Amino acid sequence: MKKPIESKINMILIIVLCLLIVFLVIQSVFKGCSVNSIRPESQYRVYATPDYSTIDQVLTRVTEPVSETQNPTVEDTTKKKTEKTTKEKEEKSTTKKSKSKAEPTEKKEETTEVTTEEETLYYATVMTMETTATLQEQWDEGYIVAIDYPDKTYKTFHVELTEKDRDVLEHLCMGEFGSGGFIGAALIAQCVKDAMCFDGYETVEDVRVNCKYDASLDNTPSQEVKNAVSYIFDYDQSAVQHRLMYMYNPYIVYSEFHEGQNYILTYGDVRFFDRWGY
Q1: Rounded CA gap, 206 and 174, in Å?
Q2: pLDDT tens for residues 116-134?
Q3: Distances 158 to 71, 93, 106, 135, 228 between C-alpha atoms, Å
Q4: Tens digit of pLDDT for each residue in 235-270?
Q5: Which own/partner contact pairs does 100-108 have at CB distance under 8 Å and 24+ positions apart?
Q6: How buried is 231 (Cβ within 10 angstroms: 0-12 exposed, 13-18 middle, 19+ buried)?
Q7: pTM
Q8: From CA 1, how far away is CA 107, in angstroms rounded?
Q9: First vs last C-alpha separation in the chain
Q10: 231, 259, 236, 233: which is closest to 246 by C-alpha?
């Protein structure tokens, strides 16, 4: 009589133990998912260190070499004529002295040194705020990139992405700065969101066309890019505590328009700007 009772008790204990294990596993999975989705930036936090002097050299671009034969100057032409006349005089005097015993000599090839011209390009000026914030303060508020002079008045509103908007934005972020991973994509996504919040564009496609984002959409967005888009739009976060309206890579093409704006930070080779005023 005792054996059936003991077996039932053992069965109940086993079932309870199994349920407890399943509960713990599910809880740990949900906990991990919530941490990763709410604070995905924790492993990507960086500090931007731009130079805040009024005007600073950003890079030196080497132009195509120009040979003297392609674009001779007046000074070069005069110099060549003088050298030719002097050479002819020397040859005549030598010929008179040893006319009968003259031997053929090898003619030395004239070599022209090719020089390259360097064009200096400059940073835009930076508008610094009167108040500063610690790096940890910015990170604790959810900003991925901490800067020396954040704009504490910076705020945006929630923008709900349609399926089409999300698809275009993910491909756009991948095309513009997919090499920048989560941070690079988050910065591009913030530029798009700021354009929608401050300039009134209603769709991502409107921003892409009117703000002249010309990167190809023929790509496959990475998971980091998708996470970045979700972080900026779904969770109403920002990559940096400052409005971002423009971006470009000066190592691809130098833009005087961009460098005339309010420079905020550089990540990788891409420079990000706000505009002056509203």
Answers
A1: 18
A2: 555 555 555 555 555 567 8
A3: 59, 91, 81, 25, 15
A4: 999 999 999 999 999 989 898 889 999 999 999 889
A5: none
A6: buried
A7: 0.62
A8: 122
A9: 86
A10: 259
